[in-house]
Design brief:
Largest sheet: none
Mean pLDDT: 81
Distance between the termini: 7 Å
Helix content: over 70%
Number of helices: 7
Shape: elongated
Radius of gyration: 19 Å
Number of strands: 0
Low-confidence stretches: none
């Protein structure tokens, strides 16, 4: 950090360099992961009558796709032009993940079994985790500079 520059001003300068679209996409991704949980709790409790002990297992199970982020990175790298992970390949993977997660959310009203709930939400979580990785990789690229 250059002399005379505080940590807060250095951090502010880095944040100001972030593309506003990236910050908006982070907000959208966080919203899409947290807001449906309100309806999900009602769906699990009232519609499926899932016991609380099973709900604990449900939340642990649907978090598993977040452990596979290195595999998503390999897949995105494969999709990228000539094996390079470019902004274009990030955008393609991010759009595909958003579309497939939306398809998963649209299938929720068709599910009437506890096993089906496990399956569809595992599917949704996988694409949410991949989208989170794409946003994180772009954040890393956009935040690197000589200030950090």
């Amino acid at each position: 950090m250059p002399a005379g520059m505080s940590c807060a001003s250095g951090l502010l300068e880095v944040v100001q360099r972030f593309p506003k679209t990236l910050l908006f996409l982070y907000w959208v991704n966080a919203f899409l992961e947290s807001f449906p949980m309100l309806a999900l709790v009602d769906w699990l409790n009232n519609y499926l009558a899932m016991p609380l002990s099973t709900q604990a297992q449900f939340y642990a199970f649907v978090f598993i796709p977040f452990y596979f982020k290195p595999l998503y990175a390999l897949l995105a790298n494969y999709i990228g032009a000539q094996g390079r992970f470019s902004g274009r390949s990030r955008a393609i993977v991010l759009q595909a993940c958003g579309l497939l997660a939306a398809v998963g959310f649209l299938t929720i009203p068709l599910i009437d079994t506890i096993a089906g709930a496990f399956a569809v939400y595992f599917f949704i979580s996988g694409f949410n985790a991949c989208a989170e990785l794409m946003l994180g990789s772009y954040l890393m690229v956009s935040s690197t500079s000589d200030i950090i």
